């Protein structure tokens, strides 16, 4: 007997089965199953297709089991059961479409994190007072129904500065990963720079007032700072002036930023220790004489209190100080030197663990590799504004095609969330209810939205949606 194909359209899902039975028999089974589905929906009020299909299948199995027992008692063959099991064994494949799923997010505890910000934001207690640095919004590894997300979406809270760092582009990451593999450097070795072959671009959106260092200032501005530092009173003023004059000269030559940074890392640690003491002792005068750089002097003193002999205590003089208000966003491409200083926000990036550090850390600093990765051009990130209060949908523009970020502001009504690619929705204010499933997401909670889904959320809430192209 040749196989017959039967197309099934039930609960918004289409699939085709192939079986040896006659078309009339298959049509009869389909009518019975459709009737069973409608009966379950009518009696239970279920609207979720997955729950309806599961319950219908369970009830049909119950009926089949009871019929089988009756047949045994009557000494009759289990014809119905045999036919059904035989047909199931010959199905090509039945795939249940993925649905919106609430995420169980992972807390990351790093020394620079905050014991208060993220616990308070998510409404959780932190009795241990261990710093919560990040909360990763990710699918559980045990869930095989979904493909791996092409981006990493997380909440971040910094109480102390993160290291000055730079990320590779895709080509640099691939080459570096292969090179370190050939050199036999273990993936968990402290001197390993490349943990995977993926580059990293990232965007950051503030949830609280946020301070960061990002991108080189212009050479003339850096030179102006070095001139001020060269005349500060210090224990060895002549040596200090000589070192600062050397950096000023570097800024006037070819490839000024690279030459400057290379020269900075060649200075003795005692130079930075002396500078830290000098700036701290002169802070009142500096803020009075150069009030437009008040934050710069203060940030330098703060960094020097944490790492008094580190070259990057001078980072506020050669990197831009970026201050974000809640809802504002900046884009940090691969190759841009940066550091997060203080505050809370959400970060969206390529899935990569590649970080090459340059300072303000007790971890491994590879000066040579860092100089290879840095884009030595002036870069001051454009601050993308927060959505206006009356805007329901706000798309942040970032010149990258790997992922995107949008904001939703729903006020006592409903809004759909159509996405062609996989996405994650994070609630940052209020609560959002999903009518189809009865799912409720509160502040700090998130859900995964599979490709092609168009869930509708209702309530009064603010949310951010990270998405990848289809």
Concise account of the structure shown:
Helix content is 34%, strand content 26%.
User: What's the tally of helices?
Assistant: 13
Stated plainly, the CATH topology of the largest domain is called Jelly Rolls
CATH class of the largest domain: Mainly Beta
Unreliable residue stretches? 83-96
Q: Compute the gyration radius: what is it?
A: 30 Å
Inertia-based shape: elongated
- Indicate the structural class: alpha+beta
Number of strands: 19
* Residue share in helix: 25-40%
CATH architecture of the largest domain: Sandwich
From the N-terminal CA to the C-terminal CA, the straight-line distance is 41 Å
Beta-strand content bin = 25-35%
